[in-house]
Amino acid sequence: MKRSAAASLLVVALILVTAAPSHGWHGRVGGPVFWWGPVYPYGGYPQPYIDWAEIAERKAMAQVRLTTEAALLSGCTRIGVVRDDSIKDLRRKIVRAGGNAAVLEFEVDDLSKVQAEVYRCTSTAKAPSNIPPPPAGAPPPPPPAGPAR
To answer: CB under 8 Å to 95, separation ≥6 — which residues?
Structure first.
């Protein structure tokens, strides 16, 4: 009985090995890709994963206002302080702290490290009131630099 059970198990294993598909390699590097699941709608290919939270965070990071003048954020609410050596990571920390503006300060001995006082502004930041108006009869300021056409 044991001998026939072992022989039948060996036969089943040999059938499975010889019946396995070769997946069409035929000397190609990389070989084809097979999908063994249900067919996806939209052309039969799996759809890419979209991280909507990351997209929202990137949009918020792009709207963070950075300045070195504390007077520009005089009407805003101070939230706290964050530090980093990368401006991108600093913007991410500002957004995660709940701010949309920051006053930057650089360390004297290491200019790569940035400290930011985080603020939350309900309206757009305005110019400080201590800047005098241009003198009468002065030419208008040049237009801002834009993309070359």
So the answer is: 57, 60, 61, 64
CB 95 within 8 A of CB 128: no
| CA dist., res. 120 & res. 20, Å (int) | 63
Q: How far apart, in Å, are the Cα atoms of 54 and each of 58, 59, 93? A: 6, 9, 14
From the CB of residue 95, how many other CB atoms can be counted at a distance below 10 Å?
A: 20
For residue 60, the 8-state DSSP code is H
Helices (H) and strands (E) in the chain, counts: 3, 4
DSSP string, 7-31: HHHHHHHHHHHHHS--TT-TT-SS-
Residue 100: phi and psi, rounded to 5, are -135, 10
| Tens-binned pLDDT, residue by residue, of the chain (149 aa) | 566 666 666 666 656 555 545 554 455 555 555 555 565 555 556 656 778 888 888 898 888 999 999 888 888 999 999 999 998 999 999 999 999 999 999 888 888 889 999 999 986 555 455 666 777 777 777 777 766 65
Give start and end residues of each alpha helix (H) in 20-112: 52-62, 87-97
Single pTM value for the model: 0.51
Which residue type is seen at 134?
P
